[in-house]
Amino acid sequence: MIGMSVSDKILNMYFATHQTCNLMCRYCYIPEEIRKSPRTKDIQIIDALKLFIAKVEFDGFKIGTFCLHGSEPSLMNAETMCEIVESVNQHWTKNNVNGLNVSIQTNGIRFTKEYLNILKQNLENPKKLRISFSIDPPKKVHDYLRNNSYNKVIENMDEALKTGFPVGILCVVSNETFKYMEEFGKWLKFYNNMALTIGNPYKIKFKFATGIFALNENEMEKFSNFLLESDLLRFTQILTPGYCIQRGNECIWYEFDIFGNCYSCNKAYNNEGIFANWKKESFETIVNKRRNLYISEYQNSDCAECDYELLCNSGCSLDRHYEGKMRGKALECTLIRTVFSESEKNGKHIYDIINNKN
Questions:
Q1: Looking at the chain, which terminus has fewer C-beta neighbours within 10 angstroms, N or C?
Q2: How far apart are CA 238 and CA 116, in angstroms?
Q3: Any idea where the domains of the chain sit in the sequence?
Q4: What is the DSSP string of 28-61?
Q5: How many CA atoms lie within 13 Å of 134's alpha carbon, on the beta-carbon side?
Q6: Spelled out in words, what is the top-level CATH class assigned to the domain 8-291?
């Protein structure tokens, strides 16, 4: 068996607490038969987490980044969420892991004033829980894709900001967004100005939709130029240092669910995506399985000759183009080439753009 490095023994992960959801989005990645499964009980979540942490420590591993996920983790009671936050923090303290906070990716429906107040009352500090809201601006796009939930989600996000929780925003850019680029840009700038003024939201990012909601190459080129002209590049995940999608076939990320299933991430959240069982296998075995999972995934031969391959590494191995001349290239390939080629004409180097230097 291949030896373990220190970094291999850090598990950067999603913890999937539910398969069901309270919002049926048009582009949901979870198969319908899974979404119709019985709702998870809170005691199942707590018991699974306790077992998970105990096994992680027994195997000599540590939890790194920890995000509550899939499909809608806020379906649990607020008190249960607080117990999870405290349990993970106890693990970090015990194992000298510093500078991390539990986060949650949520559709935002359940984070009402009442829910947030319970969280705040039961946590030592609201900064222990980072709440990332999934919002697809502008309103008409969000309501179309996410079941008319915009007003409720914005109301809850504003309440979270007022209550003192660190708030993140994750947007999905689809071919619907493309129809309203100017409104999309104004929305991002509004919340970015808020972040610059009060330090919250702490993060605003967007990624691109796949499948029938993906931008075609003509739309992607026009959208890329719009981002460049509007000074919005800093909000793209693919151009933000440190994201898993930039590691290509060598990405190491995990999604563990409460039933023992191990997935590479939420993009592989189906039966075919299960590659191990954390309840039955050692974490050393799981890590060795994971790091070879996509090592031979197809990459377009053009990428080897591309000046920008060092940035994207052909993109996420699960989110590349699947057919045609773009097959095996990053979903964001056209954006990357358009942005950097135009910027370099004006004397701005690729590294300056990535690091947001003037």
A1: C
A2: 31
A3: 8-291, 301-354
A4: --S-HHHHTSPPPPHHHHHHHHHHHHHHHHHTT-
A5: 26
A6: alpha beta
